[in-house]
């Protein structure tokens, strides 16, 4: 399982390098192929220092199986997402600042329809109100997990999930890219230019053929 630990550490460092989390914010997990365990980032460690040996292995009830550190305090949300979504094998929690700022101001309105990637990968985007980190956030996420691939939490951050870590990270990047675009457009104009609904449907059809 060294490979999955290394992947978790590398994914988290990447989110830090991209400015999608601060040194002590965010967390990332990958579910094992046999679906009995998850590998998750530890609580408190600076993200840019993370290595494979820092990653914590827990069972699907959250019991630590291996690891020298404590698992992330957002572990309850990761476990809940895996239990409700058999299709998901990686969960990312990041702090994309433009997305959260727009959500706080009531300006992140799904469907965003601002870029082709966003039409495809963020078509199941949900927003929820702030809840206390840990169990409180897991409870608040619960209702929208089955209908979402990305969930923005006001005054906090976002969860994204996918069939693998690459997809989960891409969703966070696309969310922040689209949000930055809307933010910049709003600072110049009053209403962001959106791809018309019928064109957004066409984009989905084009990529479905591949
Ligand atoms: Zn957070």
UniProtKB/TrEMBL annotation:
Keywords: Lyase, Metal-binding. It holds the Pfam family Aldolase_II. The keyword Magnesium does not apply. GO terms for molecular function: aldehyde-lyase activity; metal ion binding. The keyword Transferase does not apply. InterPro entries: Aldolase_class_II_sugar_metab (IPR050197), Aldolase_II/adducin_N (IPR001303), Aldolase_II/adducin_N_sf (IPR036409). GO terms for cellular component: cytosol. One of its GO terms (biological process) is pentose catabolic process. Residues 6-183 form the Class II aldolase/adducin N-terminal domain. This is Class II aldolase/adducin family protein. It comes from Fervidicoccus fontis.
């Amino acid at each position: 399982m060294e490979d999955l630990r290394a992947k978790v550490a590398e994914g988290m460092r990447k989110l830090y390098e991209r400015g999608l989390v601060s040194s002590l914010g965010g967390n990332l997990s990958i579910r094992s192929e046999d679906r009995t365990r998850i590998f998750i980032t530890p609580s408190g460690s600076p993200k840019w220092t993370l290595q494979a040996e820092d990653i914590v292995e827990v069972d699907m009830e959250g019991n630590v199986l291996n690891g020298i550190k404590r698992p992330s305090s957002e572990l309850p949300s990761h476990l809940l997402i895996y239990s409700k979504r058999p299709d998901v094998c990686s969960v990312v929690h990041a702090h994309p600042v433009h997305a959260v700022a727009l959500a706080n101001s009531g300006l992140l309105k799904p469907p965003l329809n601002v870029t082709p990637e966003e039409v495809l990968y963020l078509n199941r985007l949900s927003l929820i109100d702030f809840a206390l980190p840990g169990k409180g956030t897991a409870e608040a996420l619960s209702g929208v997990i089955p209908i979402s691939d990305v969930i923005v939490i006001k005054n906090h951050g976002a969860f994204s999930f996918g069939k693998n870590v690459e997809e989960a990270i891409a969703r966070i990047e696309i969310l922040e890219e689209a949000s930055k675009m809307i933010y910049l457009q709003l600072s110049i104009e009053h209403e962001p230019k959106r791809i018309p609904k019928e064109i957004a449907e066409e984009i989905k059809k084009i990529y479905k053929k591949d």
